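Translate sequence into structure tokens.
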Amino acid sequence: NWRLLFTTSKSLLNLGRVPPLPLGQIYQCIRTSTSRVYNIAEVSELPYLEGLVSVAARFEPVSASRVNVRFERSILGLRRLIGYTSPSDFIEQIETGKKFFPALDFSIESRDQQGWLDITY
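Result follows.
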């Protein structure tokens, strides 16, 4: 797990689709053993209204420098209401198949998206 200090890809979390919200920490967590990646953004630092925007994706290496990414799930909600305490704990709950209520927790259809990462290091 790591905290992103800089990104040009806020659209990855669909943050460009909601009204401007104070953006807190952004985390990216890669699980190579399961070929999964999780992006978590903490938003709105107003007391009792701290939010969360998260996407889960599956990745597949297709060459030495390219990885295909298929987004599968998105979760949007208030951190207090869904019991969010940390990225690691949250991901552990996602991996067990937990559905988060009263959050917006929905599948992302593969026909609606396509993506890849080019690795240049």
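Note: The first helix runs from residue 79 to 82.
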